[in-house]
Design brief:
The complex is a heterodimer of chains A (about 90) and B (about 400). By secondary structure, chain A is an alpha+beta fold. Chain A has one domain: Orthogonal Bundle (Arc Repressor Mutant, subunit A). Helix content of chain A is about 60%, strand content about 15%. Chain A is built from 5 helices and 3 strands. In chain A, helix 3 packs across helix 4. Chain B has about 400 residues and is α/β, with parallel strands linked by helices. Helix content of chain B is about 50%, strand content about 10%. Chain B has a 5-stranded parallel β-sheet, with helices on both faces. A 3-stranded antiparallel β-sheet of chain B has the order 6-8-7. In chain B, helix 4 runs parallel beside helix 5. The chains are: A alpha+beta (about 90), B alpha/beta (about 400). Chains A and B meet through strand 1 of A and helix 5 of B.
Chain lengths: ~90, ~400
Amino acid sequence: MELEEVLCSKPRVKILKLIYTLGQLNVSDIGRRLNLNYSATSDHIHILESEGILELRTYGRVRMYRLSSSEKAQAIANLIETWEKQTP
Amino acid sequence: MSSSSSYSVFRDESKLDINYIPAKLPHREKELRLLGEFFNFIVQCPTQMTQRVILTGDVGTGKTALAQSFGADLTSQTRRKNLKFHYVHINCREFRGSLQPILHKIVTVFRPTYPARGYAADEILTVLMQVLDEEQTTLIVTLDEFDSLIEKEGSDAVYKLTRVHETRQGQPQRLSFIFIMRDLTAVEHLDDSARSTLQRNIIRLQRYGKSQLVDILTDRAALAFVLGAVEEDVLDLAAELAHSETGNARFGIELLWRAGKYADAAELGRISAECIRSAISAIIPTMHRSELAALDFHEKLFLLAIARYFKENQEAYVQIGEAEKAYQVICEEYEEPPKSHTQIWLYVQYLSKLGVLRAEVASVETRGRANRISLPYLPAAELEQEIQSSLQGKR
């Protein structure tokens, strides 16, 4: 997927910002915090996971997503950090 | 948190707060060293073994302060040696002695967004071990008021906690415990296997003697009050009163705080013996602020209703139906929907067990039996004030 396709979705960018801020979260929690339904949240997360930006951690039956250690994820983290710093 | 008044006797009243842990604990040096010996392996060979220690002693003998002070010392010691270690202190009574939320609370120290509901204690315990492995850290968990957990969950929970490493043969040992209990009677009710995992290392904290209480209060006063605000004989009186209250240092510290408030209210600029006497007559003898703070919102509302009822009516007892009506009025005041009758009955039982109020069955003419409530141990006005200040900001 091209960069513009990944980042053209507002919910996906919101998911990335949320995970960047809170570390790791499960799908329901992400959906609740962003006011998205489960299915839409799950779809967005799978796209981000398949792009190698997010990775899954499993704790028993709990599945939590966090930014992966890939260069793409690092670049996204840098982007969010810089952007948040500049935004009053 | 200095007081802003120019005549205030306080330099920093937070030093008299129930949660303040002083840098040194007078007359507990031996026990602190003993704890250090029990947990020495965390510095020497961190993942090779685990330990369980019981701290026991009467109210105000320094159990909580000792554990927290030890935890802070060990944290800085391990940090200096670049060892990964965490100390977590949990009061089981705040979680009504339920194992699942206690374990969840520990997990959230490492994974703050871990979901709260829907997972059994066993699962969360496994998750905790996984998280400790991921973090490559060792952990001491202090379970304060551990008797409430034994009472609620029984032998199974103790067994699960203390035997968690048996299912992890060959893996790093990461989880140790300090259990804090007022006495060991709860342990006697456990089955043999659970009891045997607990009773190896017991540290008993003896009641403080009067001269020890003088030392403790002198140290604390030096931190909390401005120079010259408390005379030696006043500290002596406070220590005497704390000594008569079963050697309870917390009682003495709370007494000093309250006496300081009386001194400020009268703009005296120093704490007199009369301030101590006023404070002792007003202090709540059987229920301290920490216990009140641990009640949930609706329990506080219900207790506030009882306090108001007895303050406004010169009666010794209130029927549960009347108490419920008073509670509904309080709920209206706080814009909260009232809980059901059954839930209120549970509140009565719980508060009665805590020793805050007394519930009894009395026969009522022509209509059989009814439950009635009394408030034999606490002045109603004082209780009302305490609850209102603890509810501040929740309206």
